Amino acid sequence: MPDIGIIGAGTAGLHLALLLQQAGITTKIYTDRTASQVAEGKPQNSVSHHAPTLARESALGVNHWPEADYGYLRHVHHLNVPDGPPAFVGDFVRPSRVLDYRIYLPRLMQDYEDRGGAIEIRAIEPSDFDGLAQQHDLLVVAAGKRSFGEYFGERPEMSPYAKPQRHLAVGFWAGVAQTDPRAVTLSVTPGVGELLDLPILTFDGFASALLFENIPGGPAEILMTQKEADDPEAYRALTLQMLRTHHPGVHERVDESQFRLIRPGDILQGAVRPVVREDYRLLQDGTVALALGDGHATVDPITGQGANSASYEAQVVADAIIEDGVVDERFARKVALRRRERVDGLSTWVNTMIETPTPPHLVDLLGAMSQNRPLCDEFTENFSHPHRNGDMVATPERVAAAIARHTQLQEA
Questions:
Q1: Model confidence pLDDT, tens digit, residues 322-380
Q2: What's the CA angle centered on 342, arms 309 and 334, to 5 degrees?
C-alpha cells in the first residue's frame, strides 16, 4: 500500500490520517504548530459538526464529546424585517455539536500519535513539495495557506467573488442564556448581515459563540474593523449595541451585567473569500499533489460547513486510496469526480446566502419556512447534507418548487 504525506493538521488532515491509520496505511502529518500551541492559541472557528461527521468520529474512536451530553437538535430562526414573523424553528433528525477547536484538534493529534502516527512540526511551502515526493507516494495538501491556494489555482465558475462578501467577528461570550432545548440561533437582518449564536463547549464549559456576518460597508461592519484588543470594554459595549439594534431576538437572552468574553482575547476577526480550487497537480516526478479541505475549498462560515466538508472529503480520499492501492492521476480524477457534487453544491448554497443584496428568492424561502414547519425541518436537516440546500436555493424556480411541494403536503 502507498505511503501518504499529509500537510496540515486540521479536520481534513487529521480525519484522513486517522482513516488511513485504521486501514493500516502509512501516513505522516506535517504541521507548523504543536498540539500545545494550538491549545494555547486564539480561537480558530465556531463550526458545528453535523451528524455524518459525528458518525465518522465515532467510527474512528475519536468522538470524545458524545452528542447526548454536548449536542443540539434545533435551529431557531429570526427574520428581522418590518412586520416579520416571530421566531420559527427547524429540527434535525440526529444531533450536531459545537466544540472549541483548541480542545478538538490537540486531542485528535494525540489520538493519532498514540496509535503510532508520526507528526513533524515543520512549515511547508509549495517549493518543498518535490522534496517531500521523494519520501511519499502521494502528497495531500490539507491546509488553507495562501501559497497553497495559489499553487492549485481556482475554478472560476465556482469562485464568483473577487473579495469577501462578509466581514466577520466571532467571540466566545458568557452572559447569553442557552435556549431550551439547546439550539443554534440564526438571525437575519437584510442590509446588515447575519448572526449565528452557537452553543459551544469551551475549556470553561458552554458559552455562546456569537458569529457576526456583517455586510461590508453596513452598520455592523465595525465589529470587524474595530479591534477588540485595543479597548476590550469598548468592544464589549459595541457588541451589546449591535445585538440590541440588529439582532433583538438574541439580545433578549443576554444578561448585560454578565456579558463578557469567556477568556480575554477569545475573539477572531477577519474575512473569507469563498473559493473552490483545482483538485490536484502533478509534481516533477509524476507524484500527485492533491488538494483537500481548506486547501481545496474555502467557504464563508455562514452555514458552518467547513469542517464537515473537510471530513467528507477525507472519507472520499481514504476510500479511493483503500480501493485502488495506487495513487496515480487516475486516482486523483476519481477523487475529483466523487466529491464534486457535495463541494459544488455547498459552495452554491453559501454563495447564495452571502449575496448582497439578499436575493428575493432567499427571503421568500425564509418567509415560507416561518409558515411551514416541515419545510423548515428539511432546510435544517440539510445542514447534514449541504448540497441539497445548494440545489434548493440555486434559482428562484427551485425555491418556488420547494415551497410549492411543502404547501401541497401541508394542504393534503
A1: 999 999 999 999 999 999 999 999 999 999 999 999 999 999 999 999 999 999 999 99
A2: 100
Distances (CA, A) of 230 to 43, 169, 198, 226, 257: 18, 15, 26, 8, 21
d(CA 388, CA 390): 5
* pLDDT tens, position by position, 228-239: 999 999 999 999
Its pTM stands at 0.97
